[in-house]
Amino acid sequence: MSHSVTITRTTTTSTTSAIILNTGYLKTWPGILKLAELILGIVVVGLVGYYFDRYMYYANTPEVFFLLMAVTFLIGTFLLLTSCLISISTASIISKTVHEVVYHGFAFILYLAASLTFIIEVNHRKQHYSRDYEPYTAAAIIGLVISCLYLLSTIFAQRSYKGL
């Protein structure tokens, strides 16, 4: 006697697109430094961008250089922070490469150069920047603070790269 048994199985699949954020990264020193660099960078770009006068007939090279460096490293830091937040493995892998050391090192040097050039220019031509003196001075000082943050990030990146 042989029996024939038919089994019917119904399978239901559903897809979800859950975005997992690595919020633990913001509790580490490199994460805190990147977040501070990002927030202060937004403030600097907002200040200089708001008071930027594109119709100047005199050379405003220090102002443009400062704004260019601020926007460049704002975008770079945003991308680094975003990739460390949306990928758990990226936060651990990228810190062990030389990329962060080079990036933060160049950011420190160029932001420091741009901030010093800008603050010297604003103080040298104080009467010319009469309505913009305080915001530009504040932006340059915040730029110096951001430079210090990038120096600290360089030190942390170097230690992580060396495995300390």
From TrEMBL:
MARVEL domain ranges (all copies) = 25-162
Q: Which Pfam families match?
A: MARVEL
Q: Where in the cell is it found?
A: Membrane
Membrane topology according to the record: Multi-pass membrane protein
Instruction: Kindly give the PROSITE patterns that the UniProt entry links to this protein.
Output: MARVEL
Q: Which UniProt keywords apply?
A: Membrane, Transmembrane, Transmembrane helix
> Which InterPro entries does the UniProt record give?
Marvel, MARVEL-CKLF_proteins
| Coiled-coil intervals, chain numbering | none
This protein's GO cellular component annotations are: membrane
Q: What is its main location?
A: membrane
Regions crossing the membrane: 31-52, 64-89, 101-124, 136-157
**Which superkingdom is the protein from?**
Eukaryota
Protein name, entry field: MARVEL domain-containing protein
Q: Which organism's genome codes for this protein?
A: Phaedon cochleariae
